[in-house]
Each structure stands twice: as C-alpha cells, then as structure tokens.
Specification:
Blueprint lengths: L2 H14 L4 E4 L15 E4 L6 E5 L4 E5 L4 H9 L3 E2 L12 H7 L6 H4 L2 H4 E8 L4 E5 L11 H5 L7 E9 L1 E2 L3 E8 L4 H13 L6 E5 L1 H6 L7 E8 L1 H12 L5 E3 L2 H7 L7 E6 L3 H4 L2 H5 L6 E6 L4 E6 L4 H10 L15 E6 L5 H4 L7 H10 L13
Parallel strand pairs: 1-2
Antiparallel strand pairs: 3-4, 4-8, 5-9, 6-7, 6-8, 10-12, 10-13, 11-12, 11-15, 14-16, 14-17, 15-16
C-alpha cells in the first residue's frame, strides 16, 4: 500500500464510521486556537521524501510531510532554493504551509505560496485521489485546484504531494537594519523615499520598538531589509539605500528570529490594506508604546501583524482600536481593509470570528469536496 493509499483508507474509514478527522503535519499549527471537532488525527508528519526533482526545470515534487528544512537541504545541493519562509520554524511541513497559505517576509519579492505551487495531489472527503496543476512551469488548467486547496486548512482535502517552482540561489544575500529613532515626520519622509525608489528587496519589514528589541536591534523602531542577487545588483541597491539612511548590516539569522517572533504568542492578528495607505500611517503605528504588542509592517504588501503574549490582549485591542489600519476607508472601488485572526484563545474565536466559510459559495465547495464534513470540521468556523 502506497502512502497515498493509506490516506485514502483512513478517510474512507472516517466516512464509513462518520468519524471526523483532524488533519495535521508536524502539529505546529494546532495551537492556532480555533476548536476542531475531531475524534481522530490523521498525521502526515512522517510522509516525507522527494518524488521528483528536475534541477534543469527548477521544479521539485515532494511528499506533503517534507519539512521546509528538508527542502532547503535538497535544493541547496543544486544551488537552488524555495523562497518560502512562513512565520514559524523550518520544522513545519510543506503540506501544512500550503494548506494554511502561510507566507513570510520573502513574499515581498517572490510571492505567496500559491505563486510557488505548480500542482498537487490530495484526497478529498470521499476518499478519492485528485490531482491539480502539473509538474512543469508552463501549465494550463481550466479550474485551478491548486489555488483552491491553498489556504483551505485541510477542509477540502488531505494534501499528500506538492510540486513547487524553485529559483536559482542568489550569489549575494545580505541584510541590513535602519534605526527609525527620529520624529514621525522624518520616518514618514524616509518611508516615502524608499517606496519611490528603485529598490527591489527580497524582504522589507518595519518593526516597532518591541519587535526591534526582541531581535536585538535596539529600543527604537527599525526597518529591516534583505537585498539579494549578484554582487553588482546588491551593491547598487545598498548604495542607493545608504544615501537616504544609515544602515547597519545584520546576520541572516535575524530573519529566522523574526519569523519565530510569535512563538508562544497568545494572539496574532493580521491586517491587510492597500500598500499606499501605510505610507502616511506607519510612523504613528510604530510609535505606539504598548510594550507587549509586537508590530511588524510589510509596506510593499500592505500587511501588518500584531502579536501579543504574557497577557497583552487588552493592549492589543487598544492598539488595534487606536492603531489606524482598521479605520482605513475604502477607496471608492470596494478595496478596503481586511482583518485576519491567525491565533486567538479558543474561547474568543466564536465571538470575534464565528465563521469564514458561511457564504453560499464556500458551503457549496465544501459540500462538493467533503459532503460528510469529516475533514478538520470547525477549523474555519461553522
């Protein structure tokens, strides 16, 4: 019996016995907080390994239980990499990363998980094996099942295999920090200058004082930027950046620490809006003095994350209420602000986010792929 067949058997047994299944990789996302009504766990944590790797095509197919660390080791041997760095550690599996649509700082330049996913294999809630996409970069399909499964949190199918788009590993990869200890006016001017420049960073994050302190970057708000490519490209960009700000080079491990900044957090909230809206408000948000609210802003993507631990929930809500992005108006074309709860105490979920799949379209898709509701029931709400 193949590993996919074993998943099929488990799902069909769940259907026959009406036994809901909790789908998990290494279990890193089980602490996200939203309750799951499952009697049994279907773990793919041990279902790892390379299925196919064609370095010349920059494509890699692996089992869903393969960790990001394993993929890093395999691709490094061919001077290639998968620029996917979700928040958390590299011990997380690629299947869980795709299922939760988890992205990190590198999404600034390389895109979201759906942009790096070429195809996948999954087992739906009827125990049927389904394939979407393909194993080549130029792939055309009528209905994009790969994107449908990305971010579905295992509610439509159990991802068993994924095919990914790789990139050549950059010859030079350097990171720098810029202290934002000046006035809000000077910080805003700097951010507008950087936004209007030709800089093309791999990653760029704005950190409030609490976030900067946790990374050992001082007590003031800071800009953390990652530049990569060949040597001439990096030098040109560094020179341009140095003309408008005083830079200090930092270790690449700073990004690893940043991705793990919400380790042990009680609440994580993500706020998204148009990138241009952060240019005039980021400085005042970063100046917020709540000591237990860690704030990071990706102004290129228009994404802000707020993290609390140690009983800082009240401070978090104070920051959100006074902290601007939630009150951003729409631009007249329906492009407003969205608030995504990544992690909350279990008892809070029913109050602030009872469901994100209650609309007719989501219910129709769920009924088509998991009519008996045995796959991660409740993880996205009722």
């Amino acid at each position: 019996m193949t590993r996919t067949e074993a998943v099929v058997t488990t799902v069909r047994e769940g259907v026959a016995g009406r036994t809901p299944l909790r789908i998990a990789g290494r279990g890193n996302w089980l602490s996200a907080g939203r309750p799951v009504s499952a009697a049994k766990t279907l773990s793919l944590g041990d279902d790892s390994g390379v299925v196919s790797y064609v370095p010349g095509d920059l494509t890699l197919t692996v089992r869903a239980g393969s960790t990001l660390a394993e993929i890093e080791r395999v691709t490094r041997e061919h001077d290639q990499w998968l620029p996917l760095d979700p928040f958390g550690s590299d011990d997380g599996t690629i299947g869980a990363t795709i299922a939760t649509a988890s992205a990190g700082p590198l999404a600034t330049n390389f895109g979201l998980p759906r942009d790096l996913l070429l195809g996948l294999e999954f087992v739906n809630g009827l125990g049927e094996v389904v394939r979407g996409g393909g194993r080549v970069v130029k792939n055309v399909a009528g209905f994009d099942l790969s994107r449908l499964l990305t971010g579905s949190w295992g509610t439509l199918g159990v991802i068993t295999e994924v095919t990914l788009r790789l990139y050549a590993r950059p010859k030079v990869d350097r990171s720098f920090a810029v202290s934002l200890e000046g006035s809000e006016k000077s910080t805003t001017a700097l951010l507008r200058t950087v936004a209007a420049s030709q800089l093309a960073p791999f990653a760029l994050e704005l950190l409030n004082g609490a976030a900067a302190r946790s990374l050992g970057l001082g007590d003031s708000a800071a800009l953390l930027i990652r530049l990569g490519g060949n040597a001439p490209i990096v030098e040109v960009q560094l020179k341009a950046l140095s003309q408008v700000a005083r830079t200090e080079e930092v270790e690449q491990s700073t990004w690893t620490e940043f991705r793990e900044i919400d380790r042990g957090a009680e609440s994580v909230i993500r706020i998204s809006t148009l990138p241009t809206r952060f240019l005039g408000t980021a400085a005042s948000i970063l100046a917020d003095t709540q000591p237990r609210v860690v704030i990071s802003i990706n102004p290129r993507r228009g994404v802000m994350r707020l993290v609390t631990s140690g009983g800082g929930e009240q401070e978090l809500m104070t920051t959100v209420d006074a902290g601007i992005p939630v009150s951003f108006p729409t631009d007249g074309q329906g492009a407003g602000t969205s608030v995504i709860f990544e992690k909350l105490p279990p008892e809070v979920w029913p109050v602030v986010s009872p469901s994100v799949v209650s609309d007719p379209l989501s219910r129709g898709i769920k009924n088509a792929y998991d009519p008996h509701n045995i796959l991660n029931p409740g993880i996205l709400g009722d």
